């Protein structure tokens, strides 16, 4: 029987391998080196220099840009011609902070105990497509069930599901009872739902990081402070100890992963930056010392202004569905985030675009641009944050953030000029990812 079992496993593995070799690449991946000509009336190919070129033709073969030609020279006899002569064309946008497998709603707490990992992956497929159609061709998903988000990431990569390129952290590394743990349910329910990435003590937190890397995490996300939407009155201050933060950062870096921290309270922000952390999500209560630490470390801030705006509106509105603990923190933190981003920008902190979508609605990601401009960024700086800046932050500058020969053909377009009115990016007209057109209004 044992020999039969081994033979059966070998046969199944062989069949799976053969099927993988024979299966079509699926939606979203160009299987042949077909040629597409994109004729762009206005082209912001490299947002780092802010130069808008006129009347260009992008030559795309398969999944890559191979040439940028002067004039409108698309040749229908050589390939498909896409007419964007009246449009403003720029690189696919990058959102550095999303949660694709869910979205805040009055039933969110119930869904935590009724939706399986498979259900969440299916929900994530819907929101991944919605995000892609909004012009975001790359996202970092920072906090979801390992099984759900890694399956979704891989399905998008193989072309089985339409969506943006996903850089995924999986489950957040958090303290027991902290913002990334399960809170507000019966004790036995919380024990069942708690993740392997929950830890206490430096040694245990090293284990949590290594467990996430083994599970498939591209990036390590931790919850350095309390959070608005955890259903506990634990405040927004530091939750990990300094030795735990050092252990997390050191063990992640040794395994080739960067570490980003959810952090509101200034004590947690500064402790994480002193430990060598790579980036801060939110940053609500950062101070002058924080700004100095950001700059000395070369760390990035992802302000997630849309999340702050959303939770403040819900908590103060007539249809508030937050719990009392969530409401108190939303009213405290949400209104402070615009001023935080303004102070960080004036202080020279590097800012990458991120929305925390899943708190706000997926597909509304581009509303973050107007909030960044309200915080003092120019429209160009806001676009840079969502292209070259976010690509540098996520260490994918060779894959995303600009349009150039040799780069993946991630291209979006709008009708008006987003350098004059950044809200044009909320009205996406054209989306191409990896050479495949997903939207052409």
CATH superfamily of the largest domain: Metal-dependent hydrolases
Largest sheet: 7 strands, mixed
Distance between the termini: 60 Å
Low-confidence stretches: 1-30
Dominant shape = globular
- How large a portion of the residues is in β-strands, by DSSP E? 15-25%
Helix proportion = 25-40%
Signal peptide: 1-20
Domain Amidohydrolase-related: 88-436
Pfam family, one: Amidohydro_1
GO molecular function: hydrolase activity, acting on carbon-nitrogen (but not peptide) bonds
Walk me through what this model shows.
The chain has 441 residues and is an alpha/beta fold. It has 2 domains: 35-91 and 420-440, Urease, subunit C, domain 1 (Roll); 93-400, TIM Barrel (Alpha-Beta Barrel). The protein has helices spanning 2-22, 108-114, 117-133, 146-158, 187-193, 202-215, 242-254, 266-274, 288-297, 305-316, 324-333, 337-346, 367-374, 379-385, 388-393, and strands spanning 35-43, 53-61, 64-70, 80-91, 93-98, 136-141, 165-168, 174-175, 198-199, 220-223, 259-263, 279-282, 300-302, 350-351, 411-414, 430-433, 436-440. Strands 3-2-1-4-15-16-17 form a 7-stranded mixed β-sheet, with no helix packed on it. A 5-stranded parallel β-sheet has the order 10-11-12-13-14. A 3-stranded parallel β-sheet has the order 5-6-7. Helix 3 crosses helix 4 (146-158), helix 8 packs parallel to helix 9 and helix 10 (305-316) crosses helix 11. It is globular and about 65 Å long.
